[in-house]
Design brief:
Number of domains: 1
Number of strands: 7
Order of helices and strands: HEHEHHEHEEHEHEHH
Radius of gyration: 21 Å
CATH topology: Rossmann fold
CATH architecture: 3-Layer(aba) Sandwich
Number of helices: 9
Largest sheet: 5 strands, parallel
CATH superfamily: SGNH hydrolase
Structural class: alpha/beta
CATH class: Alpha Beta
Helix content: 40-55%
Shape: globular
Length: 220
Amino acid sequence: MTLIRLIPLCFLVFVSTASAAAPLPRVLILGDSIYNEPAKFAANQLKGRVEVVWKYAGDTSSVLARIEELLGDGKWDLIHFSCGLSDLHYKDPSTKSIRAMSKQAGGIRVTTPEQYEQNLRALGKRFQATSAKLVWASITPIGDVPTGIYDSGSEIEYNKIAAKVMAELRVPINDIHTLISEQRDMKRPASGDPYNFDRNLVRAPIIAAIRRKLGLPVEE
């Protein structure tokens, strides 16, 4: 009689332990250096509920070349990705590697609009093959850059290309570009740093996208 009572009790303990050890949903944030700090912030805010990992993504051609390495062997529940700033800057045309060179000095853009569209479509399809949920983040704003490494506002054309591709692939867009544009002065300092804006502006939309796509409460 005692044995009959112990069996269900042991079963309940086993189920409880297995449940407690269930893996957290995993989120991969692929983006340029702008996303490093916001991704770390998101990881801290969602600690114990979501595993958030940031990996640097440069221009789209480089991401395609490294795609298997970036995805790794594990399963991702959500991939939040953005590529564009590195595609838009000007480089030395005499080298295969990407070495910055101003347009005035003869630099050429890293990625043409046509190649950008082709690359984004290939990336989107590869990410879809993982069965992860996907979110595309629009390219952040580029203001006045006296160094000639970027063209002010050039991201607008590439964001339109991305919007077209994402609509085709049915991938939702996290419109970080509009959010930042509405909350900051687009004039750049003399350094012409295209990454120079408050990263705090990127935190909230990333966390909101993660919560929404994984079905977590919007506020806790």
